[in-house]
Amino acid sequence: MKISEIAALLKVEYRGDDVEFEGAAIDSRQVEENNLFIALPGRQVDGNTFVSAAKAAGASAAIVTAYQACELPQILVKDSQKALRQLAADYRQKFHLPVVAITGSCGKTTAKNMLASIFREASSTLANKGTYNNELGVSWMLMGLRKYHEYAVFELGANHKGEIADLVKLVKPCCAAVTMVAPVHLEGFGHVDDIAQAKSEIYEGLPSDGIAIINADDEYCDYFIKKAGNRRKIFFGKEKKADVIVTDIVLSQQLQPQFVLHTPEASIPVNMQLVGEHNVMNALVAAACAYAFGITLAQIKKGIEACKPEIKRLIVHQSKRGTVVIDDSYNANPSSVAAAVKLLAKYSGKKILVLGDMLELGDRAVEMHRHIGRLAKEHQVNLFYGYGELSKEACLQFGENGFHFSDQNTLIANLTHQIDAQTTLLVKGSNSMKMWNVVEAILGESSCCTG
To answer: Scanning 107, 287, 324, 449, which has the fewest C-beta atoms within 10 Å of its C-beta?
Structure first.
């Protein structure tokens, strides 16, 4: 596209040569050759000040909110994030390919990664990187579509009603899935019923010939069936009757799930690289979506088995002392913490849980932290280390050998005296608690990834 076309679309002016660009970047450090650089406002920095850096990195033009003293062609707008969304929406219209959207309270990133891995066994696939699942991230990722892509997978996140509906309008999926509904972002939603209502927007936004992928085991299954209306439905599950199911689940010595995957036509054994039985449900989401598009069972198997864990999401390391360190520090909510605790319980030797506060839980925050304390005790966790005011409640419920810290460095110093080659350490917490600092401190410079 030429920048004159973008200026016309946005009804604004531009300066410089009418150059062509391909793709977009919102970070000057991630600019690729001929990208359009979008200068976004930030809390601490102004994206406009990085236009020269973007040019040096290979950008062919930039969208700015103030012209910069740089030879790079520039399109002047009032709101660069709004301009990016408008540009992405227009750009999406140029592509006609199967697009799948996945949301859910837990597991959506893993399910998205698995489905992308499966689709790549069949053909070229675009998927949003990491957890770029809000309006800004999805808009940026949409600009990565190319003519050679035959599939696209987008993870959609939300912390309030209406957000999924807006993202669906932007992405325009023909197939959509909800992994599960659980109490997360309650400060924005209020009640779990409201979360289910928000997630159902992904089904309501499908075209009439769209495909709804529904979790048969979820408490809100019947609600989602109603919301999907007359659209084609494919069900997945472990407990209830469904189209795509698993049987014979076992865990390897490394706690990686092995199971038999069944569709209405055939069955196949699958051995996952990811750890934890809860990831079987994520595999089912991906398998059901792939099944909807006629992907072969052999390709589904290869895609699931090729999928590796996302950074800071249940990655198993071994420290120089021989301690097993399970890094699940990217984020936390009651459901994901419960799954991680159950995984920790399967290890032998001393078991230590280090938990940072689970945030955005609204009025139920104290109750849910207390529940985690009791759950850890019930699963024979030996030591509980809490960081943050809410985690104090979990420590109190855990009782003896529950220790609370208001300073991470003090926690780390104490923890180093408790770990050895017979210890398994699980570290988890909401993203803003930065619990990966604990992982990095324990691993030091000499560690290896074992899972």
So the answer is: 449
